[in-house]
Amino acid sequence: MERVPAEAATVQPDTTPANETGDEVTISIESYLPENVPTYYSDGLTVLHTANEFIISFLQTEYPLAGSKEELEKVKSMKRKCISRVIVSPAQFVAIAKVFQENLQKYLEAFKKPEG
Q1: Is residue 63 part of a domain?
Q2: What distance in Å separates the CA atoms of residue 20 and residue 18, rounded to the nearest whole number?
Q3: Which of 11, 22, 39, 40 can pair with 95 through a Cys bridge, CB separation 3.0 to 4.6 Å?
Q4: What residue numbers bound the domain in which 81 lies?
Q5: Has residue 77 been placed in a domain?
Q6: 22 — alpha (psi -120 to 50), left (phi > 0) or beta?
Q7: CA-to-CA distance for 42 and 57, rounded, in angstroms?
């Protein structure tokens, strides 16, 4: 079991209140990454929503294994397979979007080269 680094951005608070007897009790939440969680490379994404949930699907393009130009010209289309699907509440989706935006900003500041 691998612990998620402390500097990793998360969208949940690190503690949650528990009311079993009417008294508020704070319980710590520890994030971890189990060893058997598969890791995939995703080159596509779809987001659908209902009134009560957001459905986030991560996609992976299945490229043809053709080698010659003639074989590639016969390929009419490629498929994108859904490799993972996550369903979250609207409130959680807003929190995820915020974490994505914050991390994108950090990435751009660290790695984006100025144009010109």
Answers
A1: yes
A2: 6
A3: 11
A4: 2-111
A5: yes
A6: left
A7: 10
**Other residues' Cβ atoms within 10 Å of the Cβ of residue 56:** 16
Strand duo 2-3 + 32-33: pairing: antiparallel
Q: What is the pTM of this model?
A: 0.70
Residue burial 70-108, b: 16+ Cβ < 10 Å; e: rest: eeeeeeeeeebeeeeeeebeeeebebbeeeeeeeeeeee
Nearest to 30 by CA among 45, 12, 44, 43: 12
* 116 falls within a domain: no
Q: Which helix (DSSP H) or strand (DSSP E) does residue 79 occupy?
A: strand 79-88
- Tell me, yes or no, whether 7 lies in a domain: yes
Are the C-beta atoms of 103 and 9 separated by less than 8 Å?
yes
Which pLDDT tens digits describe the chain residue by residue (116 residues)?
A: 555 555 566 666 555 555 656 678 899 999 999 999 999 999 999 999 999 999 999 999 998 887 788 888 888 889 999 999 999 999 999 999 999 999 999 999 999 876 75
Nearest CA among 36, 19, 20, 18 for reference residue 28: 18
Domains of the chain: total: 1
